[in-house]
Amino acid sequence: MSTSSPSADPAPPPPGGVLWTLAGDIRGLLMLPAALTLQVAHPAVGAGVDEHSVFRTDPWGRGERSLRSLQLWVYGGEAAAEEGRRLRRLHATIRGTDTRGRGYHALTPANYAWVHATGFPVFHHAYRYLVRPVTEAQERRLYAEWLRVGRILGLRDRDMPATIEEFWPYYRKVLADEIEATAVVRELVATDSPVPPPDRGPLPLRLLLRALWPVLLPPLARFRRFLTIGLMPPDAREAIGLEWTEDQERALRRLGLVVRAVVPALPERLRYLPLAREARREHRARQRRLSRATRPAR
Predict the structure, then answer these.
(1) Any alpha helices (H) in the chain, and if so which ranges?
(2) Segment among 4-8, 187-191, 270-274, 280-284 with least mean pLDDT
């Protein structure tokens, strides 16, 4: 696969945009399980993850790598496009047969675009619980920024709907024609799937977690299921066949009230993930330098 020259590389979303604020905020971590589950509800994507991913044997490492990759798309600057090329190289050999007996390739535009597309409806839905309902202007801006990230990942303009008006019919058609409760979906929402304890961090902490893991895992698994289903758009939830009760909805709204009150009050070092913090710090420094350079001399 050929790579573009740096001057031709697509640019990440701009500082100050919706994604600039959202992607690095710790509230984004709560949205990721729903987005991942909606991705793998597509038979081709689910089969690819089932057969080629290490999410069962190294869930924490895979999660860490995926999170860093996502941060680079938005905050990576010149490194964003190279991360997109790396992902395409990584997926170039992923192929097989899905649950409907159809051959698939990870980089087939319909499959690759769906993986990227799922983040938009999940973030759009979850934002109203964890931040605030998006305005029409924010919705359009978020989608435009989502398309910019798609170009970083190597998607062509024709691979994704060009406007928000075109996106929702596309999304609903995939839900109607393709989405199902794949084996990976069932694992991701199960509360009894075996998950090893975290293997990152200081040795004493890892040893403590290993000792307490049989006690910690069941409530963590239930909370993961609750967030995964609750922060998934209702039409996607219905297409997969995931149940959601009125009591659960009320609990999610209560959780949202707490999150909306607590997270904005946190200092930046706690509210934003490391790459986002560094990018925000560098952006402020550039703005100060620009301000000094353009200030009239006395």
Answers:
(1) 18-22, 27-40, 43-52, 59-75, 79-91, 109-117, 119-130, 136-152, 164-177, 183-189, 203-230, 234-240, 246-262, 268-271, 274-294
(2) 4-8
